[in-house]
Amino acid sequence: MSPVTHYLAGWLVANTTPLDRRERAAIVVAAIVPDVDGLGVVAEWLTRNTERPLHWWSDYHHVLGHNLGFCLLVAAVGFGIARQRWTTAFLCLLSFHVHLLGDLAGGRGPDGERWPIPYLLPFSNDWHLAWSGQWALNAWPNFAITAAFIGLTLYLAVQRGFSPLEMFSRQADRVFVETLRRRFPGT
Question: Which has the closest alpha carbon to 2: 145, 153, 164, 173?
Answer without folding.
Answer: 145
